[in-house]
Amino acid sequence: MTATPPDTAPPVVTPSRVIAGLCLLAPFVALLWVDSYSRVTPRFIGIPFFYWYQMAWVPVAAALTYTAYVLVRREERARKGGAAK
Question: Which residues contact 26 (CB under 8 A, 6 or more apart)?
Answer without folding.
Answer: 64
